[in-house]
Design a protein that fits this description.
The chain has five helices and twelve strands. It is of the alpha+beta class. It has a twelve-stranded mixed sheet with strand order 7-8-9-10-11-1-2-3-4-5-6-12, covered by helices on one side.
């Protein structure tokens, strides 16, 4: 009976699907038997035929050939996922005490603003920086630090080299963080159930991500999450208005809470800046 290499591998696959992993010597054993059976014949399976069989076998089993010697490189985005599965894993990935860093772009009425936002989820401290352009010079910095139920706001204006400082009692409240991009807001959006649709695995600036999209009457809401860690990578919202579309894009980075990642949250007033006088107000601040 003439049994080909394909038949040998298929038999091996059926034999080992109980634990979804082929035995280490499956491919080697099948190849040796096939060489003996086909010795002296002019036509064989060929390199491409063997490669195709191995690829199908490994994809079906979820395993890999025995004893790989080279790094297989980054894995491609999962393909057989539902919106519910992606949302559940993305919500779980938002747990923790990471320092959140956001690069934002907002466009409305023909004007585009750029900024960065750092947010310490443990203390509620944050910093907002307005930029003249992506990666350009800062035009304004705003630090909001929480200490003993008091919010201290320090706003630095780089164009006229001045700054303001104001304290406000929190009365048990907590600063909300970056609007539209806080972990709480991202979790709430992801828990909307069947609101999003899974557009599919895509490449985002060389990174494998999963793309979720929600269309509503006057706009859209899109989320991209890392295909391996399920961390939020980007959120983009569009709202249709009589004056044109308002677009807000936020690119996320999540950094372990270390002395280095907390450095941007330390208030820094450049030398030579003068403090502005607060305008008079009626009643309590």
């Amino acid at each position: 009976m003439n049994i080909s290499l394909e038949d040998e591998l298929a038999a091996g696959m059926r034999e080992h699907t109980a634990d979804l992993r082929p035995s280490p010597d499956l491919l080697d054993r099948a190849a040796r038997r096939n060489r003996r059976r086909t010795a002296g014949r002019a036509v064989g399976t060929g390199v491409f035929g063997l490669a195709a069989v191995v690829a199908v076998a490994m994809t079906a089993l979820g395993g890999s050939p025995a004893a790989p010697t080279a790094d297989p490189g980054p894995r491609s985005a999962p393909e057989l996922l539902t919106v519910g599965m992606v949302s559940e894993r993305a919500v779980a990935a938002l747990a923790g005490d990471d320092v959140q860093h956001i690069v934002s772009t907002t466009t409305y009425r023909g004007t585009t603003e750029h900024g960065e936002w750092w947010f310490d989820r443990t203390t509620g401290d944050s910093r907002i920086t307005h930029l003249s352009a992506p990666g350009g010079a800062a035009t304004m910095d705003l630090w909001q630090l929480v200490r003993d139920d008091t919010l201290t706001m320090t706003q630095v204006f780089h164009q006229d080299r001045s700054f303001l400082r104001l304290d406000r009692a929190l009365n048990g409240e907590r600063p909300a963080g970056p609007a539209g991009g806080t972990p709480e807001e991202l979790r709430a959006a992801l828990r909307r159930g069947d609101g999003y649709t899974l557009v599919g695995p895509v490449d985002l600036d060389g990174r494998a991500v999963l793309h979720l999209r929600l269309d509503f009457e006057d706009g859209s809401d899109e989320l991209w999450v890392d295909a391996e860690t399920y961390r939020a990578v980007r959120r983009e919202t569009v709202k249709h208005t009589p004056d044109g579309d308002a677009l807000n894009r936020m690119d996320f980075a999540w950094q372990p809470r270390t002395a280095e990642s907390l450095k941007p949250l330390a208030v820094t007033i450049p030398s030579g800046y003068t403090q502005r006088e607060l305008p008079p107000v009626d009643g309590p601040v």
